[in-house]
Design brief:
The protein has 588 residues and is an alpha/beta fold. Helix content is 39%, strand content 20%. It starts with a helix and ends in a 5-residue tail after the last strand. The model is unreliable at 1-35, 61-86 and 574-588 (pLDDT under 50). Keywords: 4Fe-4S, Iron, Iron-sulfur, Metal-binding, S-adenosyl-L-methionine.
């Protein structure tokens, strides 16, 4: 069959725009049905229409326009739509981990630039955004209950009936998008962890009467060019996100499916944010990431081409190929710690596999890098660790603990544990209890296992531990953990701890609280203190101050004592009231 040039163009469009199986269907319908006079008539009609339609030249005639001109037209089209509700007040509620706190700051920065204002009072809000967590079933159930409450509030209030918009951001938005939008119809907008830039457009669509969502995951999004609006208590501490996503694919974990693959924020962007925080007087920065110590900056050519592969902790392995090149976590930690010697540096949450000696050596050398390491174990049984796809055995984990304590004397170690994972026996449980006793953690995060859809465990394993058994094992683990934490903390009685003051104690306005280098809460009476040992001038203690506190009592949760003197990370002072010389290192 002879085909016109316009008809050829149509075939070209079909080939480039449609899947192959649909291309075949279209071709068969219009070219291969010669036995049907009706179909032949349709072909003639289609030819006639195409002959009068646009030619190939019509498709390419505007290709000489500059990118800038096209971009200007695009902006002119979007701006009117996105600016119609710019006086609206946004109210955030943040659930889950510190990464969600950081995400809230990023989302607020984007909305603030779009003209929105923020309120901390729910009755004043025009937009309510919940930044959510999907790691455990209990966390999701909390969000469901809150959404039902907000929906009821929206219906009851005449003011809110037409104006209040409810949105879900973060991991739960990605995991339960269809149920939230279409089945329950509790929300107006959904934005996944990589779609916060799209919030102004989504809200504009919501005010136009549509339900809107963007939950696409990205291989590149790090929000490197978005400067978060930090909402830190009294301005003394802040979180700085350095990477997003996770490649570890532990069998129980939903994070790779809700936050995507690992990608690291450029080093220069992180340093800029930390310098800004230092200029604002922030005294403590916590570097954040789902696998924070696997950081690898490949943003520039010289970093990509740098030699060397990832050095793992001895006895550890990964499910993915060894990564090459780039600036690694030790490079980042080195540069960040040099910005402000009076700013404490912490990081969370790491994976035990990414603690090579070079990282441990740097922590030991720098006074302002806290001598506290979070070392998630998850289980004390090698068999369960294998089922979890953690990449190490109990023995390798204990070897790493010994190496850390040898290289960083006085280090504090915290951990995560999951109780009742698929197939866990009583013997496995006892091995977890014995690991807690052997290591001696000062802080722990302990949870009963809840299966998450999409994970390896969901597809390959059975959640076969009854709920009552999980609860009993969890209570036993909590009891052992508290016993060991109390021992660790009581060993500090009589010592002098350098404490960064956070504010008043929750239980008494006559007491102050803060945290020591090991991230343990320290409570002490409110009083004025001398700035210099040899001077009698007394100065009030304010949030963000460093003070020396003599520890007089302890339990599994906190330390108690009395403050001696104002201090800093790098001073060396004599405290006359104690008649001793104190070298104020970060781990004093």
């Amino acid at each position: 069959m002879k085909i016109s040039s316009s008809f050829s163009l149509c075939r070209f469009a079909l080939r480039t725009c449609l899947p192959r199986h649909l291309q075949g269907d279209i071709y068969d319908r219009y070219y291969c049905s010669k036995s049907s006079s009706t179909d032949q008539s349709r072909v003639i009609q289609l030819k006639s229409k195409l002959a009068c339609g646009p030619t190939f030249q019509d498709f390419i005639k505007s290709s000489d326009k500059s990118y800038e001109a096209c971009n200007d037209e695009y902006e002119e089209y979007l701006i009117p739509e996105c600016t119609t509700e710019r006086s609206q007040k946004v109210y955030f509620e943040t659930y889950g981990c510190q990464m969600n706190v950081s995400d809230t700051e990023i989302a607020w920065s984007i909305l603030q630039k779009a003209g929105y204002s923020r309120t901390h009072e729910l009755p004043e809000a025009d937009v309510v955004l919940l930044v959510t967590c999907s790691v455990r079933e209990k966390a999701e159930q909390t969000i469901w209950n809150r959404l039902k409450h907000l929906t009821a509030l929206k219906k009851r209030s005449q003011k809110h009936k037409t104006s209040l918009k409810i949105g879900v951001l973060g991991c739960m938005a990605e995991r339960l998008k269809s149920k939230l939008l279409e089945q329950e119809k509790l929300v107006d907008i959904l934005a996944g962890p990589d779609a916060y830039r799209d919030l102004p457009r989504l809200l504009s669509l919501a005010y136009g009467g549509q339900r809107a969502s963007n939950v696409l995951l990205s291989l590149e999004e790090t929000y490197a060019d978005v400067m978060p609006v930090h909402q830190t208590p009294e301005g003394h501490s802040a979180f700085v996100s350095i990477m997003r996503g996770c490649d570890n694919m532990c069998s129980y974990c939903i994070v790779p499916f809700t936050r995507g693959r690992e990608r690291s924020r450029p080093l220069s962007s992180i340093l800029e944010e930390v310098r800004m925080l230092s200029d604002q007087g922030v005294k403590e920065v916590t570097l954040l990431g789902q696998n924070v110590n696997s950081y690898r900056d490949l943003s520039e050519q010289q970093f990509i081409c740098s030699e060397g592969s990832t050095q793992l902790s001895r006895g550890f392995k990964t499910v993915y190929r060894t990564k090459q090149g780039g600036l690694r976590f030790s490079d980042l930690l080195d540069r960040v710690s040099l910005i402000d010697p009076e700013m404490r540096i912490r990081f969370t949450s790491p994976h035990p596999k990414d603690f090579p000696d070079e990282v441990l050596q740097l922590i030991q050398e720098r006074r302002n890098i806290c001598k506290q390491i979070h070392l998630p174990a998850q289980s004390g049984s090698s068999r369960v660790l294998h089922a979890m796809r953690r990449g190490y055995t109990r023995e390798a984990y204990l070897d790493l603990v010994r190496n850390i304590r040898e290289m960083i004397p006085g280090v504090s170690i915290s951990s995560d544990f999951i109780i009742g994972f698929c197939g866990e026996t009583e013997e496995d449980h006892q091995q977890t209890l014995s690991l807690v006793r052997e290591v001696g953690y000062n802080v722990g995060f302990l949870f009963a296992y809840s299966m998450r859809k999409k994970t390896h465990a969901f597809h390959r394993l059975q959640d076969d531990i009854p709920a009552p058994v999980k609860q009993r094992r969890l209570e036993e683990l909590i009891s052992v953990f508290r016993e060991e934490a109390a021992k660790v903390n009581m060993a500090l009685i009589g010592s002098t701890q350098l404490v960064l003051v956070e504010g008043e104690s929750k239980r008494s306005s006559e007491e102050l609280c803060g945290r020591n280098d090991g991230n343990v809460k320290v409570i002490f009476p409110k009083t004025d203190l001398p700035v210099q040992p040899e001077k009698t001038q007394m100065v009030a203690i304010t949030p963000g101050d460093y003070v020396l506190v003599k520890i007089t009592s302890a339990n599994s949760q906190c330390l108690r004592g009395h403050a001696l003197i104002h201090s800093s990370l790098n001073d060396r002072k004599t405290c006359p009231s104690e008649h001793l010389l104190i070298e104020q290192t970060i781990s004093c």
